[in-house]
Design goal:
Elements (H helix, E strand, L loop, with lengths): L1 H4 L10 H14 L12 H8 L3 H13 L3 E4 L3 E4 L8 E7 L4 H12 L5 E7 L4 H9 L7 E4 L8 H4 L7 E5 L10 E3 L2 H11 L1 H4 L4 E5 L7 H14 L3 E4 L11 E5 L2 H13 L8 E6 L13 E5 L1 H13 L5 E3 L2 E4 L5
Length: 334
């Protein structure tokens, strides 16, 4: 049974574990084994070819990471997928899906080889969901891309994964130091964005930052406060804008689209002209903001670039830290 599926020869220049991998792939492509079939155990292969268990385990782990093999404790290994065209399988764990994350995802996919499979999941800022998603997928992927968002005390969970296959995206956390990371510097980005817009902001009497807390990065609030204090802008921070008064001469900096839609509707109701009576800056750009209310000014990281950089990191197994580019885009709302 072993030699029917696994063919290893000392005359082959290829490493033994690579021969095991290729043997399994060949057996699937030739119809010798199919999805759901059990394959010889680690001990059986090791004994048949006088190999160490570690050599066989190395091959099996790679086949698991590519999604070709699965394992049931106490029962052994089986063929989980007959899609042998997949050379690598990547887990992408985001916080939530929105237009910005979709742009990041699409850019990531576009910059990966065609034979790469990407599975995307969402933890929705829930530590229990996050933990469960990680635990259930240990050893099943070639790389793990993690967007921790506002979750804390997660290093012990990520320690379950092979450290050389983990990549952190969007937020740089002290507890995850040492992992490759592509991140936004929220404090610096909003400060620099407001600085770029400084001359336009002088046309208004007051700057208001809507900061509901929760999932929103604290760095935004710090950067906003530092900018206003340094340059003498009258300013306030609201936890919401639904019931707050809006007055001529105010500029609102908004962290999410829900608040943007609410404010635009209220301006229409009160017949306040956006870009003249009321200024608006929205955090995170999208194609929609090019047309809403004749164009909404934004401060935004470049999600397309982030996806491209992430693909380069994963494909070339890079390490280190990269701060993603952010910019202010002026439109008619300011």
């Amino acid at each position: 049974m072993v030699k029917k599926i696994i063919k290893i020869t000392s005359e082959h220049s290829q490493a033994k574990y690579r021969q095991i991998i290729q043997s399994v792939i060949n057996s699937i492509s030739e119809g010798v084994i199919k999805k759901g079939d059990k394959i010889p155990s680690i001990n059986e292969i090791a004994n048949e070819y006088n190999l160490s268990r570690d050599t066989v385990m190395l091959a099996f782990n790679e086949l698991k990471a590519r999604g070709i093999l699965g394992a049931v404790p106490g029962k052994g290994y089986f063929v989980e997928s007959d899609n042998i065209a997949v050379s690598s399988k990547i887990l992408l764990l985001f916080d939530e899906l929105n237009t910005f994350k979709e742009e990041l995802y699409n850019s990531f996919i576009e910059n990966l080889p065609d034979d790469t499979q990407v599975d995307i999941y969402f933890h929705h800022f829930d530590i229990n969901v996050f933990t469960s998603l990680i635990r259930e997928r240990v050893g099943k992927y070639s790389a793990y891309v993690i967007m921790p968002a506002n979750l804390t005390n997660i290093s012990s969970i990520l320690n379950l994964l092979p450290s050389d296959k983990v990549y952190i995206i969007d937020r740089k956390l002290d507890e995850l130091e040492g992992y490759p990371v592509i991140y936004q510097s929220f404090e610096e980005d909003i400060y620099n964005g407001l600085f770029e817009a400084k001359e336009l902001l002088h046309n208004y009497k007051k700057l208001i930052f809507a900061y509901p807390g929760g999932k929103e990065p604290k760095g935004f609030l710090t950067g906003f406060t530092n900018f206003c204090t340094e340059f003498g802008f009258n300013h306030s921070v609201y936890d919401q804008i639904k019931t707050k008064p809006i007055r001529k001469g105010e500029v609102f900096i908004l962290p999410n689209d829900r608040m943007l839609i609410n404010l635009v509707k209220r301006c229409w109701e009160k017949k306040l002209e956006i870009g003249k009576d009321i200024g608006i800056i929205s955090i995170n750009d999208s194609a929609l903001k090019e047309v809403v209310a004749n164009g909404i000014s934004t401060i935004s990281t470049d999600f397309k670039l982030m996806g491209k950089t992430l693909a380069d990191f994963v494909e070339n197994r890079k390490s280190g830290e990269v701060k993603n580019t952010s910019r202010f885009t002026k439109r008619n709302s300011l």
